């Protein structure tokens, strides 16, 4: 157990640890109906006047609610030899086949300290259950320390506990560069580079891990694929693009490339899988990936409509003329018309369209859609 609540000014501290409310079917139906009504009312209020603070926040469906109060880690068996480790808002996969284990991602919630209290150091022996590994593979999903920042801690732990084990570290060139250039030395540099052709990590005839660069969030995010086998259905781990049940936080999870962001969904959907493991929030499935892709496309469409809908009159009403009024503070301010008048009008128009359509389908849409609209508008202007 973690003793204190970690400070969470974090990028993706969206939270997790669901005690998903299980409802019996009759109760479930009426709870669902009453939720839909409340949700629809909140959406209509926001859409009709986005600046009306009394509208409040659009509620999240009971089945999607996640809480931050459970700070212990959890270990869940997804299929024979494949465990999902979850701590606070982050996921790690732990794979075991005989005396060989593979770990995918080493989270360090932004703002947290690296300590031997890390739950992962207790989860690894639990999965090993007395077995002494002869080989450990450590895989980095992408080049962000909040997902790989406890790698050195785990590496040192493995070295101490299992001195005879061979440890291999897998990552892309982008991740290696991040680690090389970082001052904090939180992570061990990868010694197996996953390049454009991808790589396969073979653990047993029924358990292998295919790694392919598909980007979408950073330049070189890995799509981690455990194909279906006699041991169970296919599993995909793909971090920080799809957030099952929720709209992505922060401008499409600060994607560097919206086109690639959308395309990465397609590249996940090409695979045969039942279980989708995101970087954050609970597990998902194919439907969550499809919905996330539809959402992104829909925001792009809304951004196009928004650009076409903003009128000159709206810009005049919003004070665009102040840029040429010698008595106004904005006089001659080159940025004012774009940054303070046009873009906000476009964002609000796009926001209304998106929230009306998605507010009750994906949690948090009302909180994040302005950021998505900004990214989509930017993309239309300079990249499409
Ligand atoms: C703000 O929303 C409330 C409902 O929550 C509504 O009664 C009120 O008329 C709205 N105000 C404006 C200015 O739209
Ligand atoms: C977390 O909070 C939720 C909502 O208040 C509650 O239902 C749940 O039991 C709490 N979980 C823990 C582990 O305290
Ligand atoms: C964890 O414990 C080991 C062994 O006692 C120690 O060498 C190491 O410095 C500790 N690491 C941290 C981050 O406290
Ligand atoms: C751990 O190993 C013991 C025997 O050494 C076995 O009885 C038990 O089922 C194992 N637990 C798991 C979770 O595999
Ligand atoms: C995915 O899970 C949702 C429940 O979260 C379910 O309604 C849906 O049918 C599932 N889709 C697939 C393809 O299994």
Automatic annotation (TrEMBL):
- The secretion signal range is 1-26
**Protein name according to UniProt:** Metallo-beta-lactamase domain-containing protein
Q: Where is the Metallo-beta-lactamase domain?
A: 89-280
Q: Does the keyword Cell inner membrane apply?
A: no
The answer, when asked if Signal is one of the entry's keywords, is yes
- Classification via InterPro entries: Metallo-B-lactamas (IPR001279), RibonucZ/Hydroxyglut_hydro (IPR036866)
Identify the keywords attached in UniProt to this record, alphabetized.
Signal
């Amino acid at each position: 157990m973690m003793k204190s609540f970690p400070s969470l000014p974090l990028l993706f501290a969206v939270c997790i640890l669901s005690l998903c409310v299980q409802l019996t079917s009759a109760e479930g139906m009426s709870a669902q109906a009453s939720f839909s009504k409340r949700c629809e009312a909140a959406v209509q209020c926001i859409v009709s006047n986005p600046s009306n603070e009394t509208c409040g926040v659009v509620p999240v469906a009971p089945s999607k609610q996640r809480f931050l109060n459970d700070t212990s880690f959890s270990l869940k068996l997804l299929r024979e030899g494949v465990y999902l480790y979850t701590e606070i808002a982050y996921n790690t996969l732990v794979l075991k086949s005989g005396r060989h284990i593979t770990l995918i991602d080493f989270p360090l919630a932004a703002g947290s300290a690296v300590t031997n209290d890390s739950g992962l150091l207790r989860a690894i022996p639990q999965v090993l259950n007395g077995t002494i590994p002869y080989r450990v593979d450590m895989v980095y999903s992408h080049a962000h320390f909040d997902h790989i920042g406890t790698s050195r801690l785990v590496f040192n732990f493995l070295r101490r506990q299992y001195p005879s084990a061979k440890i291999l570290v897998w990552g892309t060139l982008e991740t290696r560069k991040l680690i090389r250039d970082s001052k904090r030395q939180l992570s061990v540099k990868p010694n197996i580079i996953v390049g454009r052709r991808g790589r396969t990590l073979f653990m047993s005839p029924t358990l292998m891990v295919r790694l392919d660069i598909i980007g979408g969030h950073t330049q070189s995010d890995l799509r981690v694929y455990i194909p279906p086998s006699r041991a169970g259905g296919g599993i995909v781990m793909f971090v920080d693009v799809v957030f099952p049940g929720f709209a992505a936080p922060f401008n499409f999870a600060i994607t560097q490339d919206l086109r690639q962001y959308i395309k990465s969904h397609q590249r996940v959907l090409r695979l045969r899988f039942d279980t989708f493991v995101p970087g954050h929030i609970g597990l998902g499935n194919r439907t969550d990936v499809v919905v996330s892709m539809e959402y992104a496309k829909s925001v792009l469409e809304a951004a196009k409509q928004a650009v076409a809908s903003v009128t000159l009159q709206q810009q005049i009403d919003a004070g665009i003329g102040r840029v040429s009024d010698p008595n106004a503070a904005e006089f001659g301010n080159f940025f004012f018309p774009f940054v303070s008048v046009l873009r906000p009008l476009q964002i609000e128009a796009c926001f209304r369209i998106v929230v009306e359509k998605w507010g009750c389908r994906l949690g948090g849409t009302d909180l994040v859609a302005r950021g998505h609209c900004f990214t989509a508008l930017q993309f239309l202007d300079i990249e499409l």
